[in-house]
Amino acid sequence: MANYLFHQLDRRTLLRGTGVTLSLPWLAAMQPAIAASNETQSPKRFVAMTLGLGLVGDNLNPIQAGRGYQPSRYLQPVDDMRDHFTVISGTSLPGVNGGHRAEASLLTANPAGSSSRARNSVSIDQLMAKHLGDNTRYPSLVLSSNGSSSPSYTDSGAMVPAEDSPSRLFSRLFVNESHADQIRQAERVQHGRTIMDLVGDDAKSLARQLGAGDRQRLDSYMTSVRDLERRMAESEKWARLPKPKVSAPKPVDVRNGADFIGQQKLMNDMIRLALQTDSSRFITYHLGGSGGVVPLAGVEQGYHGLSHHGLDESKLDQLAIVEQEIICTWAQFLRELNEISEPGGTLLDHTSVLLTSNLGNASNHSNQNMPVLLAGGSFRHGQHLAFDRNNNYALPKLYVNLLQEVGLETDKFYSTTGTMNGLESTRA
Amino acid sequence: MLAMGCVCLSAAAADNLANVPAGAAKFLQANCCDCHQGDHAEAGLDLTEFVEPANTSVTSSNRDPLATWVRCIDRVAAGEMPPPDAAELSAREVNQFVTTASTWIGSHETALAAELGRVQGRRLTNLQLERTLQDLLGIDIPLARDFSDEPRSVGFNTVADGQAMSHFQLEQHLAAVDRALGEAFRRVSQQDDESIVELSPRRIARQRQNSRTREPEIRDGLAVVWSGRLIFYGRIPATTADEPGWFRFNVTASALKPPADHGVWCTVTRGRCISSSPLLVPVSEFEATEIPQTWTFETWLDAEEMIEIRPNDLTLGQAKFAGGQVGTGEGEDQDVPGVAMHEITLQRVHHGPTRDVIQQILFGDLKVNRNGLAKLDVIAADAKPAATKLMTAFATRAFRRPVTETEIEPYLRSVFSSLDHDMPLALALRDGYRSLLLSPRFLYFQESAGQLDDYSIASRLSYLLCNSMPDDSLLQVAAARQLTDRKVIAAETSRLLASPRGQDFVKLFADQWLDLRDIDFTEPDPRQFRDFDRIVQESMLDETVAFLDNMLVENRSVTELIGSDYTFLNSRLARYYGIGGVEGDAMRLVKLDPSSRRGGVITQGAILKITANGTTTSPVLRGVWVGERLLGEHVPPPPQNVPAIEPDIRGAVSIREMLAKHRDHDECAVCHVKIDPPGFALENYDPAGKWRDRYGEGGKRAKPIEIDASYQLSDGREFDDVDEFRRLIVANPQPIAACVAEKLVTYATGAPPRFSDRDEIQRIVEKSADSDFGFRTILQQVVQSPVFLTK
Predict the structure, then answer these.
(1) Pairwise CB contact (< 8 Å): B120 & A361
(2) Integer Rg of chain A from CA
(3) ipTM score for this prediction
(4) Per residue in A77-98, pLDDT tens?
């Protein structure tokens, strides 16, 4: 390769390249052919599954609190997994309202979404990815059933666009680029890093020319420049390592946009593969509400329309069919994770899976009494944590538990301090 | 960083807002604080925070103090607050408070604007980036489709406050820049290929007539596709693109066995037309008649994509085919309509300039060595001066204003450094251009506080009308310092609107203003709305765009948004609406009989569909939409401490009764008296845009209920139906004109008008009165107003 490709790396870049020991992906530990990794424990993962249209609380939450609860309508068919999850009721995000707009607050706990003026702050998945994401090819995966909307927000409060095609995701995770593409990619990345230095400086000089208001906007541009530069350095490292091989074939995307369950099943499979191959440890999957009729026996009206049931019996019946299937598909995902063993337990033992929604009651757009199911990880499961339905408990306390679970030493998330009462870890 | 920025701004605002004028504070204390005080304040509005700012930090509250003040002034001025049963106030008292508070808020805003400007740090939208890169480099490949969706703030993605910037956006931008530069270099390295292929029926149809496929069959020497539901039926593999590009198609076709009263409506679609890659993109629609006609359309094709042509009108009879394939002759006996293709020509074309112009943009007059893309190079006697000249010229166009030596210097240094390390000049320039296109000077609007300079005005005008960079002619006017002259602005506006680049101004504005881009958001339930299909939907969009286009070109009154005695229809949409006497597939102006129940944008199918959810209609949703988009009502979200009410529809019979219950709560009724009237007036239109007299007609279970579209406006005037509603609204054009002006200001400048800009909006409205509030006059007045010409 001609020397002009490398001359522009500045001193800072070179130091970064030589001074840091590159840690191999954790997957390498399972493959004796590759040198042993310095990670000996199975890593902790987090999966957030977020529903755009809520779940009917009366069908989801058991009547009794504590361990010996009678399974609710929705939980009856998944009772075999009871010891692997916790039902949490009577919680919500402090200060958050605004119905669908609260989707933006769901994983950030920031009421930004409710009032149109403020900006958002970082979501728990992106916070985890920021601190712990460098060990995998993709610091995080942000996925959705439909469209690029997601509840994931960067440090700068910008929404992370979601990937909604399982087949494109599969290619990103498991299909290697050609050798020529890899070289081209490396060149692009190297020049990209020098550009970032150049335009970062230009932004500073432009900021001096423009007013104070513009300066604040340019700050977010400069932050983006720095973040991209850092990510380019990371991607240079990963570009040299081949992607993991899996036996599963590349999936065909579900064509029917209204087939909510079909999409959920297919994306769950991709999430399982991504976790299994340690391609990423922090995954958010947004299951937004589709307007169409979900192809299930007994369902005749659009899902979104059904969620506005207005207590109409026929609508509630149809809605329950859809929501029951969502819960069963979620439980099947848990079962599959639980069948994969790895050092120290199963994949489920090392993966916290949160299922929730910003809507406690989709019919009247209430953000109180959110549906919350927490599975996996090292939590002591098998109970129903029932908080006050009239005076809700702060859900972000659970987020503090989750941050601690993946290894972040913190006792605060957004404006909430402390962990959730009654939720214990089995770890010493 | 940004979040911090906002806090700083609000804090600054709060400081200034702490000095409430004594008169206003006294008024609030005497008349408002009884209810709006403390933790249990009505509507969660604690006014003591405002009148005694020393005691409580205003920033501790979740509210934007400025917006709260504006809302207080508006509600007192409207007589809504304090509630009549709480206090009786003289007009003088109210007037005094409104005047004092308005003047004070206005001066606060003016001070803030002088320092910061009304709009800060606006960046180019995805579409604007695509078009600017295309115009800058002379290329035509799509770029915007690879960007993630952009948020719309107060309705528009041009609004700076809502625009996102993070490493995701920057990374996507870098990728787009690379694709754009790659294409420009490819074009220079190759001959432009504009070959024409003529396809006879034999080439259009399946190659083996006895195999069962989804391709056309030969019948009487023509390539035929029957009406049927099979996916990909009508695929034409001979149109497959080897390489991605723009293609111009001429399709000559005629109808087979058409129904007695109309032709055979067909769709043209692109895609790979295979199950593993099932996405299909609409290209065009046409109505085949027994007499053959030729249609021309252009479409982008990705590599391996082909086009599919088929009858696709759900009202036509449908043939059934076994096993997912069609055998030659199997459609014949089913006696359904079909389309017969006589010839297709396809031509690879380029939009924009030729190769020589692109070469001039990239390399000026330098000699180019063309040995394929890999060996492309340029020859310069002295590389560095040549690079300096080219980089400066490129930066001037990319930054939309002259660049100083200091500004270009770091970029030049990087190019020189590459040259010093023996990088070929062409590659060094490519890297240099790449850096310039990542600069914030390319991505953002450069606007300094106060009056905008000529170049900033040129950019605002060009991005408003063309969604792209100023053309050479506009930049010359800016260089001559003529753009501060309002006559010149008016002339340039007319010139750009008439130019090819300004042709889709109305469509792109309405895409966001009227949510036309969201028309696909829901799909009308096919069991309820049996004849709603893609052709109807596309025709609806065409109707609204043609109507608005005509409104601009003919300077028709903006009251025609609410009511008009004409619209634009083709034969399919006319049949859907039940309007007779319209033939042909082109949109044409149709005079409307009052009995048609149509006229005005609010009665057009596209709007009626967008404001419904595909299954049912809601007067609230439609009411809020019409109020906010057309009548200029600012409907605030429900107050924070009012619990959501859950309508129990089991005991109610109709939507009207549900909402009556809803309106029994005073705190809801305050807004719903404004929200609901347009919604009720439109209840006679179903979610798919058809007129209906009863709910649930045609359904099996529910007993049809007669629709009652009568209601009263917030001022008490009553109406019986949509016709009377339209007459009442149209009689008062000013609010509609003000609303259109506000939307244009927001879209054009990147921020909504402020409280203190209301007078300016009123002036725009007054100046358009002579033209009967013509759409074009309002646009011209907006671009000549101080709101547009100041940061």
Answers:
(1) no
(2) 23
(3) 0.81
(4) 999 999 999 999 999 998 887 6
